[in-house]
Amino acid sequence: MKPFEKPVYVTRPYLPPIEEYMSGLQEIWDNQWLTNNGPVLQRFTKQLEVFFKTPNVCLFNNGTLALQLGLQGMRLTGEVITTPFTFVATTHTLYWNKLRPVFVDIEPDHYTLDPEKVEAAITPWTSTILAVHVFGSPCQVKKLADIAHRHNLTLIYDAAHAFGVEIDGVPIAKYGDLSMFSFHPTKLYHSIEGGALVFSDPGYKKIFDYLKNFGFASETEVVMPGTNAKMNEFQALMGILGLKRLDELIEKGREIETIYRERLTGVPGIQLPLVQSVNVHYNFAYMPIEVHEKEFGMSRDRLYEELRKYNIFTRRYFYPLLTDFACYKYVQTNDPLTIAKGVAARILCLPTYYTIDANSVDRICELIIKIGKQ
Ligand code: T4K
Q1: Gap from CA of 87 to ligand 1 centroid (Å)
Q2: Which ligand 1 atom lies nearest to the CA of residue 318?
Q3: Which numbered atom of ligand 1 lies nearest the CA of 313?
Q4: Atom of ligand 1 nearest to the CA of 65
Q5: Which of 151, 152, 155, 157 is most buried, judging by how many CB atoms fall within 10 Å of its CB?
Q6: CA-to-CA distance for 320 and 158, rounded, in angstroms?
Q7: Is residue 2 part of a domain?
């Protein structure tokens, strides 16, 4: 089989018709207003308030700063129970807030925090649970809410991957005290760069607005040491245009996942993620598989390298495990993290995005099957 002519990446950003973006640019030119809470950002914020079914929405220039400032604004202290199976940014936001990460294991079906392990790790210093809806798969929100309630803990979700996900018809942002969404171009939905906080306590709105704008409360008043984390008009414009197509993006993701499932189910050594339960409206943002070396006939890393020869650039999200990075190796971990270590060694995210065609997905599957038989 021949390699793909052009590289096939794990993802590609959705781009609206260029004329639509140009016409939005005209408005920005006319306004001569580029950032600092401009009219396009205000419009985008209003649309997201409707989308999330709450006025408690605050936009930022990226997801990392959104979460970092969210934690800062909530004045959290002490220990935070969190997952090692995530993008480094999740834990970095704890570091910048002088919060101590306590890593516990994930569950094997959807790679989200194991509630039993969370409860076992609670100490008198625990203030917060920071869980991740990894690959858009919802955490066990009811169990985590129950634990948080019983132990008086703050419950925060890194929902970077979960834009558009709903549980029982309720936007996923409505679970927990605060959720962060990333609008980076590698996500299903993006605003070039961007991030959002959605929260339950309306009192935080003002604080988050201060924090992203140097702490200014008025022209002459600075009420806290904020930073610059404002979303600009060009980002907001992209966000508005993408939002109109969110349903199409999700539908396309569903179609791609269906092909992967049809072609790869039953292939020895290839494990597909468990299908989401019926009450979950999933966003199909990622297509993770696990490669079991013995049954498949080669390691995940070999498959990753072999696919590169065919111009297919899969990604090993999230390997290495966070606890293996030099900057977090020092963190003492009591949990052996058995599941997370195994998943990190086997995980491979396959290409899925709006512009990939069914034929290419088919070819990728054929190649995986062929390579495994070598
Ligand atoms: N929490 C979690 C759980 C996260 O996953 C992330 C970010 C965050 C927090 C922080 O949110 P942000 O601050 O980023 O809003 C990417 C992204 O940079 C990062 O946003 C994302 N998670 C992470 C999972 O993936 P890389 O290093 O894998 O990206 P990169 O540049 O290698 O891109 C991957 C592929 O995407 C490329 O091979 C090709 C394609 N691509 C990428 C870009 C940027 C394009 O086709 N066009 C593009 O413009 O980190």
Answers
A1: 9
A2: 24
A3: 38
A4: 13
A5: 157
A6: 19
A7: no
Helix or strand run (H / E) with residue 289 = strand 287-291
Q: Flag whether 5 is in a domain.
A: no
CA 129 to chain centre: 17
pLDDT tens for 197-235 read: 999 999 999 999 999 999 999 999 999 999 999 999 999
Amino acid in the structure at residue 18: I
Q: What's the pTM value of the predicted model, to 2 decimals? A: 0.98
Task: Examine the domain organization and report whether 201 and 317 are in the same domain.
Answer: no
Q: Indicate the pLDDT class of residue 138, thresholds 50, 70 and 90.
A: very high
Tens of pLDDT, residues 264-322: 999 999 999 999 999 999 999 999 999 999 999 999 999 999 999 999 999 999 999 99
Model confidence at 96, pLDDT cuts 50, 70, 90, reads very high
CATH code of the domain in which 176 resides = 3.40.640.10
**Domain boundaries, position 253:** 246-372
> Ligand 1 test: best mutation among 184, 308, 313, most atoms within 8 Å of CB?
184
d(CA 124, CA 152): 11
Predicted pLDDT at 1:
84
Helix intervals (H) in the chain: 18-31, 39-52, 63-73, 88-95, 115-120, 141-151, 204-212, 233-243, 246-264, 293-296, 300-309, 338-346, 358-373
* 238, 251: one domain: no
Closest atom, ligand 1, to C-alpha of 64: 13
Q: Which pair of structure tokens corresponds to residue 164?
A: 């558009």
Residue 373's pLDDT is 80
DSSP state of 195: E
Supply the residue whose CA is at minimum distance from atom 46 of ligand 1.
12
C-alpha distance from residue 116 to each of 71, 175, 178, 372 (Å): 24, 19, 21, 36
For residue 8, tell me if it sits in a domain: no
Residue 211 CA to ligand 1 center (angstroms) comes to: 24
Residues with CB under 6 A from ligand 1: 9-13, 62-64, 86-87, 89-90, 132, 158, 160-161, 182, 184-186, 195, 313, 315, 317
Ligand 1 centroid from CA 359, angstroms: 25
Domains: count for the chain: 2
| Shared-domain flag, residues 100 and 196 | yes
